[in-house]
Design brief:
The radius of gyration is 16 Å and the shape is globular. A hairpin with a 2-residue loop joins strand 3 and strand 4. It is 35% helix and 25% strand. The strands form two sheets. The protein has a five-stranded antiparallel β-sheet. Strands 1-2-8-9 form a four-stranded antiparallel β-sheet, covered by helices on one side. It is an alpha+beta fold and 194 residues long. The longest helix is centred in the first third of the chain and has 22 residues, at 43-64. Helix 1 (43-64) packs across helix 2 and helix 3 (129-139) crosses helix 4 (146-161). It starts with a strand and ends with a helix.
């Protein structure tokens, strides 16, 4: 969700076994100081693309002594995804990626397995995508603050997960336009949202 003072992402870790250590499951990743990402689909494919995005962002920072634009990074990853749709002996990456970041303002990009990408004000990917998008279409406002956006995102997750919702299942991060610094939500921060 893009907000007037930043951008945020929440993800459901889908902890389905009670013996799994929750903090061992990571669904939101830091790419650079000002860029984060999450994945839906074949998460091992997502991890490979996330790691590539981290390397590309750092190479750009070292080469040009400035942070990479979010859209340039998204295009780089989508170019790789597209090559794998036509390369013989290789299969496409089976993962949708969502990138959040701050350049001139807050941005959210979603990529699909074919290498197509779109920029959104607010969106969802994954299992309950259509239900969450329906909620976002009704309740999202461009004037929202990060606190408002977090409340909307958590409420949307609560609605679609129902009795399965738990803060232990939520992974999230935000980047403010003022600081341009990727920060993770703590369980304490999430639990204060009403």
């Amino acid at each position: 969700i893009t907000c007037k003072d930043g951008v945020l992402v929440l993800a459901d870790k889908r902890i389905v076994e009670k013996l799994i250590v929750g903090k061992s499951i990571e669904k939101v990743f830091q790419i650079d100081d000002h860029i984060g990402a999450t994945a839906s689909g074949i998460i091992s494919d997502g991890r490979i693309l996330i790691e590539r995005a981290q390397v590309v962002a750092q190479q750009h920072r070292v080469t040009f002594d400035e942070p990479m634009e979010v859209e340039s990074l998204v295009k780089n990853i989508c170019n790789l995804k597209q090559i794998y749709t036509q390369a013989g002996g290789a299969r496409p990456f089976g993962v949708a990626l969502m990138f959040i970041g701050i350049n001139d303002g807050p941005q959210v990009f979603v990529t699909d397995p074919t290498g197509i990408f779109f920029e959104y004000k607010a969106t969802a990917i994954g299992e309950a995508e259509s239900e969450v998008k329906e909620i976002l279409n009704k309740e999202y406002k461009e004037s929202m603050t990060l606190d408002d956006g977090l409340k909307l995102a958590l409420n949307a997750l609560k609605k679609v997960l129902g009795k399965d919702f738990s803060l232990d299942r939520v992974d999230g991060a935000y980047i403010t336009t003022a600081e341009r610094q990727f920060k993770r939500y703590t369980k304490e921060e999430l639990s204060k949202v009403k």
